[in-house]
Amino acid sequence: MSTVADAFATRHGAAPTGVWFAPGRVNLIGEHTDYNDGFVLPFALPHRAVVAAAPAAGGRSRVRSVQEPGAPVEFSAASVVPGEVPGWAAYVAGTCWAFREAGYPVGEVELELDSDVPVGAGLSSSAAVECAVGVALAGLAGADVDPTTLARIARRAENEFVGAPTGGMDQMASMHGRAGRLVFLDTRGDTVELVPFDLPAHDLELLVVDTRAPHAHASGEYGARRADCEAAAAALGVPALRDAGPDDLPRIADERIRRRARHIVTENARVVETVRLLSGGADPRAIGPLLDASHTSMRDDFEITVPHVDVAVEAARDGGATGARMTGGGFGGCVIALVEADGAAAVTASVREAFAQRGWAEPVVFPGTPSDGAGRLA
Ligand code: ADP
Ligand code: MG
């Protein structure tokens, strides 16, 4: 991915000051728990956004993206405020704004962006862009900003500049990821613990299946789930569902709200149990039933799956997966499957066959390898 540095040099007649990157992520387990003060367990992917950057002469910043051909988007990084930059460049300008709001110096910049994180697949191409820009801004300013602070800046860009009311998992995973490790995040206080996840040592692989399901009503449904969780916490008189346990659930009168709460309560417990097993050196196959139970809970209690992901999960299990679940916010996106390394082809074939039978577009399958979080490339 030094192509982005080459493109920068060709365009500007000089090499960039530096090249920075930040990865997309996959969540192993812990879905919709992040906005309930709960636990999540993502890891950083080898897929990354890469940004070549240098200070810009004059009073304007410019950003180009290989994925958004056309004229560069211009704004003033030193003065931009929410509402001024629409579209994809809002993720970039928003990070400049949030970085400034956090009290760091921001001058005008030339940015050249490239990314191989699939867009809109639930692998967090948006956090990859924000975090890559965040580490670039810190690098250009010569500021030593810790990963959690940068993740919060990136999240603020997404929440307040782009206007997407997401939790903080994506940016924390993109900043804190490490090769061979999971990022165990307690979203109450944003504390991070790295958990070993050495699949090759156990002859295992984690397949990521991008179902390419058409996303339907995802943002509206997301808001509705958040509202249901708030209603559940209010019914129980707790600050967040993180503070509720299984014994509390019968106290929720409304049947739907009770099921929503049951997903969050049991999902938090599954994350904690997954961490306990893996930190204790258990064979990773032991987490298979937890992945399966997470999917059932998302399908029946939280109701965020769609036929494409349910079929992919079933077909992965039929093909021999040790465990499988939808990952990400739901209503489309990706499925993960824990598989024997020598059984990956059979699982892939099983999923492809199930999709072909239904006349659905072929899913994209690739190994999810826990990789390093954001940093400087050159
Ligand atoms: P995801 O699950 O991929 O994060 P989002 O809807 O949150 O999906 O973010 C996708 C949006 O992020 C894109 O529509 C685009 O605006 C922006 N984006 C992601 N990657 C790039 C890129 N390489 N160049 C420009 N914009 C990007
Ligand atoms: Mg996103």
Automatic annotation (TrEMBL):
Keywords: ATP-binding, Carbohydrate metabolism, Galactose metabolism, Kinase, Nucleotide-binding, Transferase. Gene3D superfamilies: 3.30.230.10, GHMP kinase, C-terminal domain (3.30.70.890). Its EC number is 2.7.1.6. Residues 7-55 form the Galactokinase N-terminal domain. Transmembrane segments: none annotated. One of its GO terms (molecular function) is galactokinase activity. Residues 91-177 form the GHMP kinase N-terminal domain. It comes from the Bacteria. Residues 283-356 form the GHMP kinase C-terminal domain. Pfam families: GalKase_gal_bdg (PF10509), GHMP_kinases_C (PF08544), GHMP_kinases_N (PF00288). The keyword ATP-binding applies. PANTHER family: GALACTOKINASE-RELATED (PTHR10457:SF7), MEVALONATE KINASE/GALACTOKINASE (PTHR10457). Belongs to the GHMP kinase family. GalK subfamily. This is Galactokinase. The lineage of its organism: Bacteria, Bacillati, Actinomycetota, Actinomycetes, Pseudonocardiales.
